[in-house]
Amino acid sequence: MKQDKILLAHGGGGRLSYELIKETILSAFGNPILNNLDDSASLPSECHRLALSTDSHVVKPLFFHGGDIGKLAIFGTVNDLAMVGAGPYYISVALMIEEGLTMATFRRVIESMKEASKEVDVKIITGDTKVVERGGLDKLFINTTGIGYIPDGINISGRNARVGDLILLSGTVGDHGIAILTEREGFQFQAEIKSDCAPLNGLVTDMLDVSKNIHVLRDPTRGGIATTLNEIALQSGVEMMIDEAKIPIREEVKGACEMLGLDVFSVANEGKLVALVPEEDGEKVLEAMKDNPLGREVAIIGRVKGDSKSRVILKTLIGGKRILDMPSGELLPRIC
Amino acid sequence: MKQDKILLAHGGGGRLSYELIKETILSAFGNPILNNLDDSASLPSECHRLALSTDSHVVKPLFFHGGDIGKLAIFGTVNDLAMVGAGPYYISVALMIEEGLTMATFRRVIESMKEASKEVDVKIITGDTKVVERGGLDKLFINTTGIGYIPDGINISGRNARVGDLILLSGTVGDHGIAILTEREGFQFQAEIKSDCAPLNGLVTDMLDVSKNIHVLRDPTRGGIATTLNEIALQSGVEMMIDEAKIPIREEVKGACEMLGLDVFSVANEGKLVALVPEEDGEKVLEAMKDNPLGREVAIIGRVKGDSKSRVILKTLIGGKRILDMPSGELLPRIC
């Protein structure tokens, strides 16, 4: 392609659109289903429960320490599908591009998506490309929507929390949000903070291998674990007791949050999960998670205490108790 | 909800996000699958070939004569799924909103999506809401991604055009593009031009009822019928002969195109389809289409002539022949 910038005509549906798709997108993602280039992708017949999940990615900046918008888009949707136990994955990629984006930036994102989708063995089977005039959007947004098949015997939902369930957290919190914020605002901390952006499907497979009784899985992205735990409490109508001392947090993330006046429990993560499992399966799920690189720092952070109220109680470091509420404002827009 | 504008916090994943989703989105689209509010929607087990299609809608203005972005988003994805013969439909809705959008506008779009999804019996089963700071995007973009089941015995693809196939066009071309353009640029024409925005699934059902041998279906959106016919020619490796005199065009659309210097064959449609059918089934498919309100003006516009070249030949009104190429520039950005 001769152009070194994205033009409006790249989104017009004519010759330039066709060339852009053929030369960058098909050459990166090509597979027999995508290559058909029909209005809809057709999959072979399967008899399974199906999971469907969608996410738009508007992260700013496009590239950050530990990831970029492309990787985030693939892993984000894979993670949402993994949270109901589904796999393998078929994904649609819808690109919304600002006129004038450099072709080099565009190719770099596509390359990153290609690598990410290889890493998790996801097939990109359909897509859409829109180009908006300069100023109509900020550089590049990506929507990824995925489907996956849910194996028989698995029933994971935010509605399934039960009294007595153990609450597991797969690792440290706050890394992604703080990485984006430092990148964006130009903060300098002593240690460089890296996004935890990672695909959780392998970890979930390892967990399901030892227990089919996992009640709830959720990845605490926007709104952090404060939002995730409250959502589960509301959906299941349960009260949780969380022990602050058990929640893994990197020292540098803790320091950054203190300095910036942020509640680390409300900060986004992109490679962590919260699992609610019945007590009898807790130990084996914990061990399975520890054996996976993405679950090495797993901790049991609390327990479902009752079902008379939908709320989350935090036992604080100094021994007091307070309600851990959903964040009510917005400190970190465009975090994912 | 007390706010009369969308705030960044509505996209933060915290309390305001939760309220926005509960009070506007769930109350409009609620169904047992969506109401679970899990990271992925889970569907019951089915044994079928699956179709997946995605589309981002960035149309400007949000409301226009004959439709709006919400209706376009639902019908657009339904139409893409219908073009491989799939149905019924499950859709994900991903909203990208500019901070400061009025709640009244937002509600009006949601209401329109609700009505549109009722009209075609599509279920919205999962979604995502992002809010971007003022200036980060222009008002509202909507991605809709849909799945549908393809009935056994149906095999419709842009690759299936065969020599001898009749080429049917369901109605007039150019209406949507010209409607948007006049709305946007404030042109005044004698007759008001209305977008043809409509769901094509019913028409496709009527066609499939009389013939399982439909080879190709495609809705000529961005890039118009010039793009659609060329795409099919390229995918199937065939040469088509199109008779300009047979292509239905409204007088007012023709006039507007002449005045604006636009090629009507490159202008977008949102409620039309091109069908390629074997000659022996042509008559019955034509009759079935005529009986449907959206196919009343159907015409046989040409035929697949050979398979030595991938191109589209237009027999012009004055009796000459020219190659009908894909449009190479971009005259109408943000048309859908």
Lay out the secondary structure.
2 copies of one chain form a homodimer.
Chain A: H1 15-29, E1 41-57, E2 63-64, E3 67-68, H2 69-82, E4 89-98, H3 103-119, E5 122-132, E6 140-150, E7 166-169, H4 175-185, H5 201-210, E8 216-218, H6 224-236, E9 239-243, H7 251-260, E10 274-277, H8 279-290, E11 299-306, E12 311-315, E13 321-323
Parallel strand pairs in A: 4-5, 9-12
Antiparallel strand pairs in A: 1-6, 2-3, 4-6, 7-10, 7-11, 8-10, 9-11, 12-13
Summarize the structure.
2 copies of one chain form a homodimer. By secondary structure, chain A is α+β, with helices and mostly antiparallel strands.
Structural descriptors:
60s Ribosomal Protein L30, Chain: A, alpha+beta, 4-stranded mixed β-sheet, 2 domains, 8 helices, 7-stranded mixed β-sheet, homodimer, Phosphoribosyl-aminoimidazole Synthetase, Chain A, domain 2, 336 residues
What does this structure look like?
The structure is a homodimer of 336-residue chains. The first copy, chain A, has 336 residues and is α+β, with helices and mostly antiparallel strands. The first copy, chain A, has two domains: 39-150, 60s Ribosomal Protein L30, Chain: A (2-Layer Sandwich); 166-323, PurM-like C-terminal domain (Phosphoribosyl-aminoimidazole Synthetase, Chain A, domain 2), CATH 3.90.650. In chain A, 30% of the residues lie in helices and 25% in strands. The first copy, chain A, contains eight helices and 13 strands. Chain A has helices spanning 15-29, 69-82, 103-119, 175-185, 201-210, 224-236, 251-260, 279-290; strands at residues 41-57, 63-64, 67-68, 89-98, 122-132, 140-150, 166-169, 216-218, 239-243, 274-277, 299-306, 311-315, 321-323. The first copy, chain A, has a seven-stranded mixed β-sheet with strand order 8-10-7-11-9-12-13. In chain A, strands 1-6-4-5 form a four-stranded mixed β-sheet. In chain A, a hairpin with a 2-residue loop joins β2 (63-64) and β3. Chain A is globular and about 65 Å long. Chain A starts with 14 loop residues before the first helix and ends in a 13-residue tail after the last strand. Chains A and B meet through α1, β1, α2, β4 and β5 of A and α1, β1, α2, β4 and β5 of B. β1 of chain A pairs antiparallel with β1 (41-57) of chain B.
